[in-house]
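Slide 14.
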Amino acid sequence: MLRREELFAELLPRVLGGPELTASLARTGAVGVEHLRSAAEARRVEILGQAREAENAYQQAVSRSRFEVRLRKLLVATGVLTLLMLLTAATAFGWSEALKDALAHHRPVTVTAAAGKGSGLLLGVAVIAAGMAFVPWCVYYVVSSDVRAGVPAAKGRQLLVTAGLAYFFLAVTCAMFVGIYPTEVAWQLVHDRPVKDPGGYGWGGWFTLGAVLLFVIPPRRLRRLAKSESGRSFSLSHSIAVLAPRERKQAVGQAAAEWREAVQQALLSSLRQEISDHTERVFSTELTISDAPGLRQLRAGHEHVETLADEQLAMISAGMEGGSIALSGPRGVGKTQLLRIFCEGDGEGASGHLSIVEPVPVLFDRREFMLHLFYKLCDRVIQEGLGTAPEAARHQSSIRYLQTRSDEAALSAGWRSWSLSAKRATSLAQQPQTYPEIVDNLKRFLGRTALELDEQNRRLVIGIDELDRIEPAATARTFLNELKAVFDVPKCLFVLSVSDEALREAELAPVGRRDAFDSAIDEVIRVEPLDQRTAERLLGRRVVGLPVPFTALFYCMSGGMPRDLLRTARAAVSYVSPQQAHTLADVAVSLVHRELDRVANAAGGPAEPTELAQLFRADVIAEHGGLGELGRVIHEQAGTTGDRARMGATLANRAYHLDTVLRFFTTDLDRDRITRASAPAFSGSFSALARAHREIGTADTLARSTLRRFREAWSLPLPPAIPPV
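Slide 15: predicted structure.
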């Protein structure tokens, strides 16, 4: 079994000696290996805490494996004990009866005679025990709908009851026979005549008592095992039902590998940040980094950088007993990441959550989604082994299956050729739950689960992700209207990611009125794009030694959106080869061409005329003299009225923005200019250029104004104002 300290001690030298950190240290030369080792040791608890979820999964897999091994050994030992006692009783019975017969008829005792009589007893007891198990098994099957539905816990209880009855019969029978027949054998051998009364000596009662005590040991051990594992995420009855051989070692090995990978990634992220923090900012306009393993991960995990939204979510959720919180912001700003970090317990104030995170399907169906959410919640409760787990299993059964129950009884009597019969039959088919019934059952189950967790100082958190995928906004409001029926469950917190359109409609509602969104959500937290320094920290957790001009370029090309920032950095590093470095101007040109291709190849539609997008082709741009002139051509082609003119303004702004990037990010960009552009209040700042990128398509007049001020601050040719639409 892996231990936290041992795993950390194993991975630290491997990470420090890995190619990524070795190359980073050789490139920056700011700190040494011993410094990184000390820093990692100082952050040991923090680093291991970032892999807490993977560690819990591993501990649970190990506990389950140990529990099943102990349970299997106990059941095997019980079976061996029962078989040995049964053989002992049958052997004693066979010899006793054979001695009686031999002494009565004055003939020798044969092993064959003793074995025959003992085998008869053995077969008879086995048949009776099987019957005692079969009858309650069938009765339990008829009575329990959960057993018929295949619920593992119910099947386990059925097996426990039926096997317990058979075991009780065998225990009583074997104990009696062990106490009676060995003493009869001894009495007959001593007195040389058949025994008349049952038992030969009085001390046979001690044999019976000893046998009873032996038979009592396995149930007591089983009860103790179940009691010791009552807090685990699995139950005794469920484990007995699925006790068929499984790949326990494989499951434990996979969980260990995932935990090791999580700790390694957390360690790498922390050490990258340590190197970045102790490395003087590099202002080189040459990019020599050709391989950045930290950029290969598509989503931020351990590299998550806390922002103001993280603090607000922790503070607001701590002050709420239940209710709903909405995370709002543009797509790609990090709402999903913040939601998952909070729900999975990796953020501040999130310790002890029991949570599920479910994305909303694009084609929303209220009944199907509510059933899916209900089922996932039941599954999570069963995994945690809460007191409401049996109820969760029943709900899962009703969600999965439509059950049909039949009942039939017949009575007949006859004499010779005359007969009289009567028959009654009843059949009941379960109807699907109506939507109000689903909501009512879900609310009741949420309430009971949340109260149980509250007694453990924990909280039930349900995350609803990708609500902004539902189009149009009216459908999202309908979804919220349906979902808010369960928002008032005490001790239960809902966290949602919401589109800007829905938030805008809520905030612009007339004074004195509350629309569907405003009445459904208790608190709204705005997730803003990254500022320049935060973007540098995020990239510093992924890449070590990235020069400041390049981080600024990626920031301006992405608008401060974390997802686009990582995509842009990943694309830029892919352009660099180990044999040849790329200058800032080269990388800027490559990224701009990548953006031009994306726009030119965009699918056309009513809101995005194909011919306007085609103006971004390289040959068309070259024909019109570059991106600076392309904006004027787009305005001419788009006209001044309707949606076409508005789309023309958006595309022209895109052309002017890319032209500004090419003009500013050149090899002449020195440290003084970077320092000036790093001041957020300056009209020619990187923040202004990134903001212009975000404003394109949503506030084009403001975007053009921002671009004009930026270019004016750096004495670049000014683009024309947007023609009146």
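Speaker note: Confidence is low (pLDDT under 50) at residues 230-234, 346-351, 507-513, 603-608.
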